[in-house]
Amino acid sequence: MRASAAELGVGFALRAVNERVPQAAPRLGAVSKTRPADMVIEAYGHGQRTFGDNYVQELLEKTSNPKILSSCPEIKWHFIGHLQKQNVNKLMAVPNLFMLQTVDLAKLADKVNSSWQKKGSTEKLTVMIQINTDGEDSKHGLPPSGTIAMVEHIKANCPSLEFVRLMTIGSFGHDLNQGPNPDFQVLVSLREELCKKLSIPADQVELNMGVSMDFQHAIEVGSTNVRIGSTMGLLKETCPRQDRS
Ligand SMILES: *Cc1c(COP(=O)(O)O)cnc(C)c1O
């Protein structure tokens, strides 16, 4: 499989960022939705370990694929779609599930916590809180003002979950001539407020924002984790830090 010029462009851009600020190198989450298992296996062969999908059923099928199971023993699956409570048990059954990116309700966190506990895993499930930074009703996520209470809720009531990041999808097609993307700014300042209020070191709360179209800008303003789907061919060219994503 050959990467197109546009795909390579993304790869070079990420690598350039890595070279400039190695200690702050962003991590790449490959979005594999609608992609066949072979593509996942190929990307894995190039060193990519973190993959995300946004439908529970599709994720379950992909992660249970015998070829993926045998060829990708260290794969880390992220769930990046909206999660309904009735699908929690099904999601928890996903082999190699590592991260739930879209916690946005205390009740959902509770359900995930108890379902993960029942599974009997010795590791905590890492979670992100999804923030609806622009307040559009059509988007999922917690309003920014609910963030601190949500982190406190998880810390106090969900011993099997580990909160690690804030995530936003944000507005699409933001025109940078109008200034930085306000959705990203909201997430950056939320982290500041959260860390101050709860005395958490800032480097312990990462920011997951930026997709193919706007990841460069997202990294410039502080994103530590980007989600790249449509330009995934870059995986041949660059593999940012893989340690913990
Ligand atoms: C599809 C998807 C992405 C990837 O978007 P691209 O524009 O294809 O890079 C990122 N995040 C979420 C939540 C998605 O559903």
Uncertain segments of ≥5 residues (pLDDT<50)?
1-9, 234-239
The computed structural class is alpha/beta
Helix content percent band: 25-40%
User: Which strand order do you get reading across the main beta sheet?
Assistant: 7-6-5-4-3-2-1-8
Largest sheet: 8 strands, parallel
- Count the beta strands: 8
Bound chemical compounds: pyridoxal-5'-phosphate
Termini separation comes to: 25 Å
Q: What letter string, H or E per element, gives the SSE order? A: HEHEHHEHEHEHEHEHE
Q: How many distinct helices?
A: 9
The residue-averaged pLDDT reads 87
The amount of beta strand, in percent, is 15-25%
Radius of gyration: 17 Å
Task: Set out the fold topology.
Elements: H1 5-20, E1 27-31, H2 37-45, E2 50-53, H3 56-63, H4 66-71, E3 76-79, H5 88-92, E4 97-103, H6 106-119, E5 125-130, H7 147-157, E6 161-167, H8 182-197, E7 206-208, H9 215-220, E8 225-228
Parallel strand pairs: 1-2, 1-8, 2-3, 3-4, 4-5, 5-6, 6-7
This protein binds pyridoxal-5'-phosphate (PLP).
Keywords, please?
single chain, 245 residues, alpha/beta, eight-stranded parallel sheet, 8 strands, globular, disordered N terminus, binds pyridoxal-5'-phosphate
Provide structural commentary.
With 245 residues, the chain is α/β, with parallel strands linked by helices. Helices cover 37% and strands 16% of the residues. The protein has nine helices and eight strands. It has helices spanning 5-20, 37-45, 56-63, 66-71, 88-92, 106-119, 147-157, 182-197, 215-220; strands spanning 27-31, 50-53, 76-79, 97-103, 125-130, 161-167, 206-208, 225-228. Strands 7-6-5-4-3-2-1-8 form an eight-stranded parallel sheet. Helix 8 links the parallel strand 6 and strand 7. The radius of gyration is 17 Å and the shape is globular. The protein starts with a helix and ends in a 17-residue tail after the last strand. Mean pLDDT is 87; it is low at 1-9 and 234-239. Pyridoxal-5'-phosphate binds next to strand 8.
